[in-house]
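Task card 7
Instruction: Convert sequence to C-alpha cells.
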Amino acid sequence: MKDLKHLIFFENLLQEAHNELVQKACEEGKRCLGYNCYYIPEVLLNLDGCFSTRLRAPRCTSPDVATYYMTGRTCPYVRSILERAIEGGYNHLSALFGSESCAAMERMEEHFYLLRPVKNDDFFVTIIDPPMKGDKTSLDYYKVQLQKHLMGPLKNVFGVDTSDEALRRAIERFNKVCRVITEIGELRKLDNPPITGYEFHVIQLVSEVCPHELILPYLEETLAELKKRKPDPEFPFRARVVLAGSEIDDPEFTKLIEMCGAMVVADRYCFGSMPSREEIEIADGEDAFTAICRHYLHWNQCARFMDGLKIDQRHDELKRLVKEYKADGIIYENMKFCEFWSYEKVLASHIMIEENDIPCATIEKEYALGSVGQLRTRFQAFVESLEIKKINAEGGV
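Output:
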C-alpha cells in the first residue's frame, strides 16, 4: 500500500513526550496536564485552556535511578515514567493527575511529589482512589474522588472554568476526536483493510499524547486518505488477532506481531482505542459531570475491577471484538510484575479457550521491547497454530 502522508510526522511526534505539538500548545499559554490511567477521564483534562497528554517514556531502556527508589520488582512501565521524569523529560507539565490503579502506579505518582523531578513552579500532583466495582455506590464515590482531586484543583489552582457549560464544550471537542479514531479503527473490520495494526497504533497514540485541537486536522486528513487508499491485491497477513493487556505504548510491539504474520485488528489494552474512543453521551436531564463519570466507569475494562459483572464485561467485550473484527485468536499481554493483568491473563485465556473455543497466546514483557527473538518465536508458533486450526476446520477435522 502507498505510505500514509502523515505517518512519518506521527512517528516523530511519538519520539519525545515534549513533542512539536505539545511545545506549540504550551507556547500558546495552555497548561499541559499529564495522566497515566483511563481512570482519569481524558475529557476533563481538556477543558478550556488545558490539554491532556498520557505519559510515555519513549526509548527508555534502563530505568536504573527509578529502580533505586522503587526496587526492580515493580512494574517497568511506572519505573520508566519516573526515570524519564528524573531525566527532566516532563518539565512541560503543569500537573500530574494520578490514580491508585495499583500499588506500583501510586508509588510512582508519590515519587513525583516526594522527589520533585518536574522543574515547573506551578506543578502539583493529585491522586484519586478509584472504585473497584461498577455499581451506583461506586459511581457516587468516583464522582466525589474526581470532584475533590481533579475538578477542585483545576478550578482553585489554575482558575479553569469547570461549569456544566464548559464540560459540555469539552465533551463536544472530545467526541470529534473519538468519531475520527473510531471510523479509522473500524476499517480494520474489512476482509482486506486499507490500514495495518501498526499504523492504527501510531494514530491512536498521537491522539492521546498530543493536544486534540492541533492533532485533529491531521487525523481528519488521514481518515479521508484511508477512505481512498487501495489495499494490497490480497490480504498480506496469515491471521487476524485481538491484542489485549496492559500498557502497550510502543508501536514496534504491534509491528513485531504483524511481521510474524498476524494483523492486529483490535486494540483492547491500556493506551488502546477500546476503551478510550467511545463517544460520551449525556442522558436527558443529566448534568455533564455525571455523564462523564458514568461513561468512564461503564467503559473501564481495567483488570483491577474484581466484581463479577465487570469481569464478565471484560470477557464479553473480547468475544465481541473477536466476532466483529473477524479475529482468529487473542494475544494476552501483561507487563512484568503486573499482578492484576497476570491474574486476568490466566483466567481470561482459560475461559476463552475452554468455554468459547477462541485460541489464545499469553506473553509477559518488559516496558522496553526486549527479548525480540523469544517473542518472535512465540508469535510465529501462535500464527502457525491458527493456520492449522483453519485448515482442520475447512477439512472437517
